[in-house]
Amino acid sequence: MLDRTRPPAIYHIDRLHLPQPLLHYLDNGIPVYDTRINTQDVLKIELVFQAGRPQESKKLVARATAGLLKDGAGELDGAAIAEAIDFYGGTLNIPSGMDGVNLVFYCLSKHLPSVLPVLSEIILKPTFPQHELEAYVQRHLQNLKIDLSKPDIVAYRNITEMIFGESHPYGYNSLPEHYAALTREDLQAHHQAWYHSGNCMIFICGKTDDQTVRLLNQYFGKMPAGISAGVPFFPAPPEKPLPKKHFPHAEAVQTAVYIGRRMFPRNHPDYCGMYVLNTLLGGYFGSRLMTNIREEKGYTYNILSMLDTMQTDGWFYVGTEVGNEFTGRTITEIYSEMEMLRKEPVDKEEMDMVRNYLMGGFLTMIDGPFNVSEVVRTLITESLPLDFFEQWVNKVANITPDELQALAKKYLDPADMWEVAVGG
Predict the structure, then answer these.
(1) Structural domain of 208
(2) Cβ neighbours of residue 39 under 8 Å, at least 6 residues apart?
(3) Residue 3 lies in a domain
């Protein structure tokens, strides 16, 4: 009988292994990464196209193209597509990120032959109906109007534009005129240029088998290669921070604060160490920023720091919303916590707490086929070797307080930080 008066034993995590995917190639060369962990009678198919902001010929065309893919394809309109997928209990999401577009599809394994033809039509023969584009533009214009009434979103938009520059793919912000300028021909041209076999990767996981791969080859193995649309151009971001900016916001009862700087992509040698340092500063509920500014001072309900990576760049930021009367003191405390990390090594108790928290997060990353496939997809799309996961775990398990202090001195210098406050 289970003795509930005794807590479960705590085990030290010293080594984690990422299950390796099988690698197949379709007839046209599309790689298929197969995480074959058959725990349930369900599978996930994810098609990835490098067709994001860096590949745009016009601002917002990547997002609009992805957003309208399932609103009409071949002889099917949007309602027919949704009904066909729903009939078999499938789900299709098409998130559009900075660097690319992912078509993420889930279904029971036995229904794959019935739904793959629909998925194939969506990818190969989208029609981008004019009335759907007009509705898309109107929805997003309304959403933009709402977003611009929120101090936290305005602050986020401003600091990203300041760090990367208003013409940089990672820095520009959506504006009404960008939506108004979109045409059906723009979406068709973007699709033709970037949605092809030479720019596609497929990730499958769950209850997959050789028949799954054969079906993928049947429907996607003849996808045309397309014509290269050229190498993405990235304008040089500003080198030095501009003066601190405070934007008044009518009727705001809170002020949104963002402090951050440009960093690097995940393949940078300092990424794994900064991953730990960011967590310690503001990356989890027990972080220094949360303990000081929320728990002790009561200035905010939530504060966090984030190390955000893209394929060719990245940035670090601290973000929070505070009462207008606490804005100055909050900013002072944020810089104070950064300075503490620059001046003093982390003690063993705090180091162990952060290390254990992150190791638990790594366990979650490889818990089940869907999570494993997400890790595989992240590594492959960011041109990292699959053993990077083990390198990452090893760095977290063995990083020293002196290494963290050196990283803090290098990357948490207030002189390198951009600062935006939006509110009263």
Answers:
(1) 22-220
(2) 206, 207, 368, 369
(3) no
